[in-house]
Every structure is written in structure tokens, then in C-alpha cells.
Amino acid sequence: MGSVNLAEVLLPEMVILDCDPFKDKEDMFDTMTRRFEEAGFVSDAKAYKRALEYRESLGPTYMGRFVAIPHGKCKEVLKPGIGFVRCKSPFLYESAGESGEVKYAFVLAISDNQEDDYHLRVLATLAGMLAHDEFLELLNQAANYEDLIQGIKALS
Length: 156
Hints:
The chain is α/β, with parallel strands linked by helices and 156 residues long. The chain has helices at residues 6-9, 25-38, 45-58, 118-130, 133-141, 145-155; strands spanning 10-19, 62-64, 67-68, 71-74, 81-95, 98-111. α2 crosses α3.
């Protein structure tokens, strides 16, 4: 299982830096699914949100270290990709009976017809990078999308 080049799947129109903390996970899902729909990656934000919520029912997407990686797979995902949001301060993220403070969230849109292991490779790549303090430092410091991508390339 090869790793995935995050720089290629992290979408510029889906990167939100320094937004106010969300009220809760629902609030974040609403914002991100709407963005995916507006950017043309998802044909139906509601269907994609249902896919995210279904995945939440299977097990936690809270990763610790202020990070969550929710993901949804459905036929309404026209083009796969990853959104990233960094909040000014953490909000409480509840996921499958676990909860924690989240400041950084990677939101994956996975299309039904993608090879089954593709999103698992993306998740494995992200999880591997999140183990490194340099990556968390980058998530915290990046001034814009370009900074984020350059930093990811440098760390990959």
C-alpha cells in the first residue's frame, strides 16, 4: 500500500485557515459539505453529510493532538479530494463516543467508484504525518494554501 501525495489531493478551494471555532462537529460538517458542493466536488451536500455521519457511526475520527479526520464515501462525490480547516481555537468534537478538542480537521470526500484502498492510503499517509511534530507545527503556522503545500512537500 503506497502512500499518497497529499499535496495533490488537498484542494485549494477547500482550505480554510483561522476560522472561528465551530459550535460542534455538525456545524463543521455543514460548513465543509457546503464548500465541497460549491466547489463542484460534491453534487449534493446533504447526501455527502449523511455519508460523513454514517462513517462517524462506525468509529471515532478524532485522532488526538487537536486533529480530526472525518471522511465520507458516496456516489455524490464527483471528484475526490481533501478539505482542511484550522480554527483559531479548539472546539469540542464528539465522535463515536469519544470526544476531544479539535483545532485542525481534514475532511475527505471519497467517490463510490474509487479503488477501495485509496482513502485508506490517504488516511495512512495523514496518520503517518500527524505522528511528526513538524507536521503539526506546519498546520499551526502555515499562512496560506501555498505554505501548507510547500511544507507538506518538504516533509513528504
